[in-house]
Design brief:
Length: 504
């Protein structure tokens, strides 16, 4: 029996899953780690925490499955995108990683735009300069921590640091590299023009591969601490969104998915790169060789519900602990008591600024429409609806390119909620479904590993074997009409408050 290992280095934790050739999970393990926020709008993590979590979860998965590690044909890596890992000449981490949701680099985005040129930057990287992307983080370190930058010899993304720790190789792949703002998106290679303009040595970057290419093999030291067999192949893998799309079977033109994790994403497969000249959505290389994708991103999706849980749902947490269930189960029941529209309470989910469609790191979270008649339940449902409105923002821009989805595949933690899926179906006004497997990015990169190591002929075969539709929800006309009215107010609130965010 051949097995495949998918490792997803997320923001809240790392999840490692062992799959058989049919895409069925055999064993799974998750290890969490902290997020550091030394200042408002900053977000950092320690790469050592990621590596510790990878070692713990791989060992646990092998132990729980009781398989011989020699039967693992290949390993796929997925991870949070855009994070900056800086290494010195000896391969040691120089500082905590500045991760995707960090908003400190507004000045550096102006610097990038001035040095490369606004139009030329979009022509090459398919996106305007964004605070979330890696290039601006590199410049921030150079501008603010020159003593650290002087020691830097390698720059890696989060999952590619794990690749280095497993294999000793400095490498990445096109889907994740697309989010660094240093890649020539159309030609799927590092842009010498952008690198030269920003004075970033190309030798600081790893070799860039297609996502199915074997990029290295597990070395002896890593085998000893993980329990893996030495020389097990590690493929390129993918950034978390492209990986999740593979895990949802989004591999052909016109297919669309929506993921509700810490951030929220609407993702559309493209056979050719389509670039939004306003920069409201991102165009990146897909993990499918020779394909691209467009995605809109809302920064504070599951993050908003977690924030609400941690600050306002102490009772639900305690009761759920006594019942042995997830607090979100009780929270969902409370939200279900409230009708569509949350009785006029509207939430803007901009706890970490926003990317789509506003590109505004200074945007803030807002509850609007509160009255003495409202309770916590209305606020709770408003959080779920507010995140869904932000995903509708993403969907509307993608529709502007000519796509008109009849089905959206939903995944991520929020995608497990029947209530949340119904709200999306009502807002998108189309069918919403889930995959039989809820493993998302971990499954996606396991399938990529299977293609790269010959377990499958190609990605089409891998997805046809491992992926099938599970639950289905259809829009309810009466709810769709309610959300259509409130969505117009939701959009107006941001427009009205934009200047006030700046003052704040």
């Amino acid at each position: 029996m051949k097995y495949l290992l998918g490792i997803d280095i997320g923001t809240s934790g790392t999840k490692t899953v062992l799959f058989d050739r049919g895409g069925n999970p055999i064993s799974s393990s998750t290890a969490e780690y902290p997020l550091y926020q030394p200042e408002i709008g900053w977000a950092e993590q320690d790469p050592q925490d990621w590596w510790n979590a990878v070692c713990i979860t791989i060992n646990q998965v092998i132990k729980d499955s009781n398989i011989n590690p020699e039967s693992i044909s290949g390993i796929g890596l997925s991870g949070q995108m855009h994070g900056l890992v800086m290494l010195d000449g000896n391969g040691n981490v120089l500082r905590k990683s500045i991760i995707w949701c960090d908003q400190r680099t507004a000045k550096e985005c102006v610097e990038i735009t001035e040095k490369v040129g606004e139009k030329r930057l979009i022509d090459i990287t398919a996106n305007p300069a964004l605070t979330g992307f890696t290039a601006s983080k590199i410049l921030w370190v150079r501008n603010n921590e020159p003593e650290i930058y002087e020691k830097c010899r390698k720059i890696l993304l989060p999952k590619d640091y794990i690749r280095y720790m497993l294999t000793g190789e400095f490498a990445t792949e096109v889907s994740d590299a697309s989010g660094m703002q240093l890649l020539d998106i159309k030609n799927r290679c590092w842009s010498k023009e952008v690198l030269n303009a920003l004075d970033i040595p190309i030798e600081y970057l790893g070799d860039v591969h297609e996502s199915i290419v074997v990029s290295g093999k597990v070395h002896k030291k890593a085998a000893e601490v993980t329990g893996l067999k030495e020389n097990t192949p590690v493929v390129g893998g993918a950034g978390d969104q492209a990986a999740g799309a593979i895990g949802n079977g989004i591999i052909k033109s016109g297919q669309i998915s929506s993921t509700i994790g810490t951030s929220g994403v609407v993702f559309a497969h493209l056979d050719e790169p389509i670039i939004d000249e306003k920069g409201r959505v991102h165009t990146f290389c897909h993990a499918v060789p020779g394909a691209w994708h467009m995605m809109g991103v809302t920064q504070g999706a599951g993050l908003s519900l977690k924030w609400f849980r941690d600050n306002f749902c102490t009772n639900e947490i305690e009761v759920a602990k006594g019942m042995g269930i997830d607090p979100y189960v009780l929270m969902t029941k409370e939200a279900e008591k409230v009708p569509a529209g949350s009785r006029g309470v509207i939430y803007l989910p901009y706890l970490m600024g926003e990317r789509t469609p506003h590109l505004n790191p200074k945007a803030k979270g807002v509850f609007f429409g509160l009255s003495a008649a409202h309770t916590k339940n209305e606020m709770l449902r408003a959080v779920i609806e507010g995140v869904s409105y932000s995903l509708l923002d993403c969907m509307e821009i993608i529709k502007d390119t000519g796509m008109n989805p009849t089905n959206v595949m939903v995944s991520g933690g929020g995608g497990k909620s029947e209530l949340w899926r119904q709200i999306l179906a009502d807002m998108f006004n189309c069918k919403v479904s889930t995959n039989k497997s809820s493993e998302g990015p971990a499954l996606g990169v396991a399938l990529l590993a299977g293609v790269g190591t010959g377990v499958y002929k190609d990605i089409d075969e891998a997805c046809s074997i491992a992926i099938s539709e599970n639950s289905v929800q259809f829009p309810k006309e009466e709810n769709s009409l309610v959300y259509k009215r409130y969505y117009e107010i939701y959009k107006k609130i941001y427009d009205d408050l934009k200047g006030t965010f700046e003052l704040l």
